[in-house]
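Progress report, Aim 2. The chain analyzed during this reporting quarter is listed below.
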Amino acid sequence: MDREWNDSQPIYRQLRDRVVVMILDGVLNEGDPLPSVRNVAAEYRVNPLTVLKAYQLLVDEQLVEKKRGLGMFINAGARNLLLQGERQKFLAEQWPAIHSTIQRLGLTPKDLLDAVATGGNPSAAEKER
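Predicted structure tokens for the chain:
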């Protein structure tokens, strides 16, 4: 996890978001334990209550379960639940601006696919033609 914090949202939300990214990226899988509150607090130099609040958000979202005396573990189906929510969030919040930019610039689906194939390097796309 990244050790830098931004001022745009509380640290506990940023911690929660980092765990979500780790689940989506497959770094944390179903049944895997979360790092202990104490370890995360020490490693990132934050208050243990901040870590606990982030973990509680994950429990509230049914992504993580507490096992008394053992710790917290990623729930079965957590990744699929996150994918569904994150896709909806992307389509509602980010896609409209991206779509507007695509239209404003007159980009075609081929332009976009070429950009993916060349890593966004337009001169590489010209060489392929």
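Strands lie at 64-67, 71-74. The helical segments are 11-24, 37-44, 48-60, 78-105, 109-117, 122-128. These observations will guide the mutagenesis work planned for the next reporting period.
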